[in-house]
Write a structure and sequence with these properties.
The protein is of the alpha/beta class. Helices cover about 40% and strands about 10% of the residues. The chain folds into two domains: about 90 residues, no CATH class; about 220 residues, Rossmann fold (3-Layer(aba) Sandwich), CATH 3.40.50.150. The strands form two sheets. Strands 5-4-3-6-7-9-8 form a seven-stranded mixed beta sheet, sandwiched between helices. Strands 1-2 form a two-stranded antiparallel sheet. α10 packs parallel to α11.
Length: about 400
């Protein structure tokens, strides 16, 4: 196909070489070429007038200048002055004035035309190759995903889980959970329907353990330290970590709880999308998909809860209660674990937003709540609080 285009282009260029007469623009010239053959030399083309060519059609070609001493002038003037036909001289050693510019122009146009054709052909071939490879990769991905979906990932064996719990509980770090605490959370994750959605507040010594125990599900971690979250995610790319900038202070716990009660029918409702909430205790700067997931298990083990200027865990407890009550699908129940429940702030917020009637198990360090989703028109976190408020109002 390329050779055909080049042939057509050469024919078009040859047609452009035609020279017209100054007086008559409709008359075309006639090109007559006769080679002068000399021994041991290359043929040289000279232009011969039309009249002399007709007379000397049977005579031998003129002698060359290099081999003959006599030089015959073969060019004569045209006798017929009325004729408008001109002859074009094609000689490799003679350049007429005005012809060089035209040749350079034709060479310039020819070069760019050939370059354009080559670029077009190469681009079309590369696009076709990319399309073919992309379709093949898509087919491979679909087939792989279908195979993996058909077989599925088996759950972790019990021996592996027990080994992980044992080594995690015997860590040299003083800020780690005990074996009994790890076992309670692990049992809930094992009973969770696959895939299990696990939300964890705080990056701790058990972060990799939670990810391993829920290897078939989705595990998301939320931490207060932006730099540590980025560093941890760089070390472990398989971990999903998001940072949150807490604006609460532990010394403001009572004021924040009172403000949430006042706004319980507006910004601090128990059933809402916290992404659009302005409640002081609500976390509304997480990625959108975090609010759309129906979380099955929520663990609150962060942020820092010591010191009056610490952010405390009021916002995570309130947010966990709203996420559990605002579920749209999946399991209607949500398991919420609150670590360090012996502290005053954790216990106070747990009683207000997670409610004592939902407390399943409790020891000095870990509290286990089970909450169910509620109707959108519900404006009370706890049923007992509603009953007590009615009793106090009637009295």
């Amino acid at each position: 196909m390329l050779s055909f285009w080049l042939l057509e282009y050469i024919i078009a260029l040859c047609r452009l070489i035609i020279v017209t007469s100054p007086s008559t623009y409709a008359t075309y010239s006639l090109i007559l070429l006769q080679p002068c053959v000399c021994p041991l030399s290359k043929p040289i083309f000279k232009s011969i007038p039309l009249s002399q060519t007709l007379q000397d059609s049977q005579s031998p070609p003129p002698f060359c200048n290099r081999r003959r001493k006599k030089k015959n002038n073969l060019q004569t003037k045209m006798k017929n002055s009325n004729s408008n036909t001109k002859l074009i001289l094609l000689h490799p050693y003679i350049q007429k004035q005005g012809t060089s510019n035209r040749l350079w122009l034709l060479a310039f146009v020819s070069f760019f035309t050939i370059a354009f054709l080559l670029t077009l052909i190469y681009t079309r071939e590369s696009i076709s190759l990319k399309t073919t490879s992309g379709s093949a990769a898509t087919m491979d991905t679909k087939s792989t995903s279908s195979v993996s979906a058909g077989f599925g990932n088996p759950p972790l064996p019990t021996t592996v889980i027990n080994t992980l719990l044992l080594y995690a509980s015997r860590s040299n770090d003083s800020y780690h959970m005990t074996h009994s605490e790890l076992k309670r959370i692990s049992d809930v994750i094992r009973k969770c329907s696959s895939p299990c959605n696990f939300l964890v507040f705080g990056l701790t010594q058990e972060t990799l353990l939670w990810k391993a125990l829920n290897h078939n599900g989705r595990t998301v971690f939320i931490d207060e330290n932006r730099y540590y979250a980025a560093y941890f995610e760089e070390l472990h790319p398989e971990i999903d970590v998001f940072d949150v900038q807490y604006t609460t202070k532990i010394r403001e716990t009572k004021e924040l709880i009172a403000s949430a009660k006042e706004q319980i029918r507006n910004e601090c409702k128990p059933v809402q999308n916290l992404l659009f909430s302005e409640c002081k205790l609500g976390i509304n700067d997480l990625p959108n998909h975090v609010y759309e997931v129906d979380w099955d298990v929520i663990l609150i083990d962060g942020p820092r809860g010591d010191g009056p200027d610490g952010p405390g865990r009021m916002s995570p407890i309130f947010t966990a209660g709203v996420l559990a009550r605002s579920k749209k699908g999946g399991n209607p129940k949500t398991h919420i674990f609150v670590h360090d429940y012996y502290r005053h702030v954790e216990r106070m917020c747990g009683d207000e937003f997670l409610c004592k009637e939902n407390l399943v198990e409790f020891n000095d360090m870990l509290a286990h709540f089970v909450l169910e989703k509620m109707d959108e028109n519900s404006f009370e976190f706890c049923r007992n609080n509603n009953a007590s408020s009615r009793a106090s109002a009637s009295s």
